[in-house]
Every structure is written in C-alpha cells, then in structure tokens.
Amino acid sequence: MPALPRFRPRLFEIYGEYNVARLRADVLAGITVGILALPLAIAFAIASGMTPESGIYTAIIAGFIISAFGGSRVQIGGPTGAFIVIVYGIVVQYGVANLLICTLMAGVMLLAMGLLRMGSWIRFIPVSVISGFTKGIAVLILLSQFKDFLGLQTSQLPAEFFAQITVLWNALHTINWVAVGLSMACLLLIVFWPKRWSLLPSPIVALVFGTLAATLFNLPVETIGSKFGGIPQTLPSFALPELSLDKVRHLIAPAIAIALLGAIESLLSATVADNMIDDRHDPNQELMAQGLANIAAPLFGGFCATGAIARTSTNVRMGAFGPVSGIVHAATLLVVILVAAPLAKHVPLAALSAILVVVAWKMGEWSDFREMRRYTMNYRAVLLATFVLTVVFDLVVAVEVGLVMAAVLFITRISSLTGIVDDGPDTISGNRVRAYEMFGSLFFGSANKLEPLLAHADPGDPCRILVLDIQRTINIDTTGLDILESLRRKMKKNGKALVITGAGTQPLSLFTRSGFADRLGADNLFPHRSAGIAHARGLAGGARRPD
C-alpha cells in the first residue's frame, strides 16, 4: 500500500507570494468568472433534470472547496456539461434524492483516489478513449437541447438515446418558431460577440438579451419562472440524504461513473491550466479537493462538480494568479443569488439552450474526425467504438469497452514488435551450439514466440547448447519467465544447457528474485553475447558436462 500523501492545498503553499497587485488581479478575474458561471450553472442544472438553484449552489460550494483545497493554482470548479448526460440519466432512473447519494459516494471515491495517490493513473487512459466519450457526451447534450431550442411541447425526455429521438420526432409538429428565432439570435450573439469585449462574457450578453427580448415583447416562450417558479433568494440549507445499504448497493455503478468522469475532467482541466501558466498541479491533492467538493455539494442542495475547462481558461486569461480567484468566483455567485435571484424567473429556456449548444459544439472538437485518417487503425477503432457506445449506451460501458479495446490492441502491437532472430548452427562447435537473439518484450502476449526453441531440447536434436541473447529485450514478465524455465528444465533433463546473455536491469532483477538465476547457474548467465558463445563452445567441446 503506498504511503498516503500530505494534504497540502496549493493555496497554503503560495499564500505568502500574494501582494496587492496579485490580490487585485485575482479579485477581478474571480468576479468575471463568477458572472460567466451564472448562466452556465443554471443551464447545466436544467439540462441535467435539476432545479436552476441547484446548479448555482453547486458552483458556490464546490467552486469554493476546489479552489481552497485543490492542487491547481487556477482551477475553477462547478457543474459542467460533461455531467449532463450522466446526471440526467440518474435523475430519470433513480430520482433526485438518489442522485445526491450517488454524488456523495463519488466524492468518497475521489477522496480515496487522491489519498491512495491514484492521480497519475488517470493519465493511463488513452487519448482515443477520452476523445471518443467526450464527443459522445457532446452529441447527447446537443440532442437534449432540441426540446428547449425548438420550443417543443413534450413531457420529460427519456434517458435512452433512441427513445429520445422517438419522442423528439413525434413532437416536431409542436415547434415554436418564436423560440427558434430567440434561440438562434442568442446563439449567433454568443458566437460572434467581439473578442475585444471579452470582459463581458458572451453567454451573459446572450442571457441578458434573451431575457429582455422575452420580457419586453412578451414572447410566448417558456422561462425559468414558468417551469420552475423562479430561484429562491436564500442561502442553501443543510440536509442529510437518507442512506441505506440497499440504496448504496444499487447506486455503485452510477457513482463510479460520476467519480471517473470527475477525475478525468478535473485533471484534464488542471493540465490545460498548467500549460497556460507554465505550472504543475498536484493531481492527488486535486482529487482530494474534488472528493471533498462532491461530498459537501449534495449536503447543501447541489450535485456533482468537477474542474471546468472553459471557466478555468477564462480565469487564466483574466490574469488570475492563484486560488483566491476561484474563491471570489464562488462569493460572486453567492452575492448574485442573494441580490438578483428574483430576476431569474424571466430568463427564457431558449437562451439557456443556445448557451449549451455552443458549449457542446466546442466540447466535441469535431475536427478530430477529419484528422483521423492521419492516425492508425487502432486509434480510429477505439475512438469510434467509445464514441458510439457513449451515445447509444452510457459512459461506463463506453470507457470499459474502450479501455479493453485499447489494451488488446496495445498487446497485439507490442507482440508484433517482439521477435527472435536465428543465427543458425555454429560450425565451429560442429553444429552443437545454436544461438538466437530476442528483441522486444517477452510477456504473456508474446511468450509463445519462444515455443519453437523447445524443439532444440529434444534428445534427437543435434543442438547441445542453446545461447539466447536478450540484450534487446526490454521487459520479461512472469509468463515469459515461465516459458524460459520450461526451456531450461527440458534442456537440463536431456543433458543439454541453456545459456542466457545480455540480460538488462529488469530481466536480471526478475531472474534473481524468482530464483531462476540460481537454477540456471552463474556459469550460464553472461553480460555479453561473445562471452556466452565462447562458454557454449567450450561446453559443446566436452570441456565439462552442462549444469
């Protein structure tokens, strides 16, 4: 069991580096990101099947904890678009109360992952798998926004992909062209808002424009007020969810999905931030903070949260120095909900839908499909399989299958790079010495490549000494060691000898720890090929009986 890491948030490490200028920069960046986070938090919550205030509560509570206790200097946490599909599916299948339990369980898992130093393990997930499920989630978010973007009159959408398409298709005759016009206007405003006016985020501009248009012209579109009754102008209240062993048992799978996605997205976001500010985050500390955030958020009416790439990038572009900006971002949202919550009832769902359409479109990074021809067939197969399974089934199935496919294809690839070169009979020894050179990795996927050498151990084979040079063998696992042991044992049984040369650090360590080196004999293990062949010729010439 690895030693547990110290709980050392970045804020505690760099607080002494703050001065007036850096503090001012963090405050301004935090206010800007807080304003940007408001429409996103509301939109993500509604799209996830939650109430608008639950998204804001999540951004406040989780955002504060992730910044105060995280392992990244500039990470901004809160609800994200990637969670929409998972959360919506859990809400439809299990209900909101069980979603909160799922989030709590996921928080405990994330905290444990950080304590056990599993932060670096997330990097083992192939890019093809991450790209595949990210694109799949983007497609599902786009599909989920058809209802509000087109103003369709239909009941709650089901979680299953084909069922959603069926419901939306059957509701197309109820399309609200006023809602479509408002959605398109907000979408175009977000896309073409001048970059030189970036201090005023385009989603906020679209939200204000859509709200004013719907209110002043009394447009017949659905609003937060008409659907949810508005947003309460109160602080979130503490409440413990009702836990039972039976509930926990049935919620393990969705909780794992939340924890897995939260870990991946938060560490990806932190890595993006590192590249922007030339820094290096602590992945284990970040996972611990994510765990604490996901434990706390559902206790105060929120749901799952993670690091938000778009808000983190905006935080950096606004000149943030450290975690104080994230704390200010949470405080800004708290002030907004206490002061301006009654105004939210006028916000049209069409405007929020336009914001999510843009988020999903950017999340998809669709140019990867065009660039796929430059990559190997293995990469394309894993990406496409993960993408399709994410859309048709769910994230957990997609990641599991994607990882298995990537592992199998990797094993096949490494096996194909492993081989044995036959140097032919040694005429100096009267063809009684045979030498081979093995390269690559001798592991369970390639161990069968040594099986032809077993023929030299037969009594009728003229070979008396078999020299195996493994200088270019980078790794040997226990399966590879087992076939080497079989070869050694059979050679010895028939009065022959196996000589191994050029063993590197890893193979030699395995030989020593397993006792294979002792059974082989120090006289039959040489660092250099030439010495091993000279020794084999001596044995073949009858100088002494092979050990």
Task: Using the alpha-carbon principal axes, give the shape.
Answer: elongated
The level of helicity is: 55-70%
- Biggest sheet: strand arrangement: 3-4-5-6-7
- Beta-strand percent range: 5-15%
Describe this structure in words.
- There is one protein chain.
- By secondary structure, the chain is an alpha/beta fold.
- The chain folds into three domains: 347 residues, no CATH class; 45 residues; 124 residues, STAS domain (Transcription Regulator spoIIAA), CATH 3.30.750.24.
- It is built from 24 helices and seven strands.
- A five-stranded mixed β-sheet has the order 3-4-5-6-7. The chain has a two-stranded antiparallel sheet with strand order 1-2.
- Strand 5, helix 21 and strand 6 form a beta-alpha-beta unit.
- Helix 2 crosses helix 16, helix 5 runs antiparallel to helix 14 and helix 13 runs parallel beside helix 15.
- The longest helix is centred in the first third of the chain and has 28 residues.
- It is elongated and about 105 Å long.
- The C terminus is likely disordered.
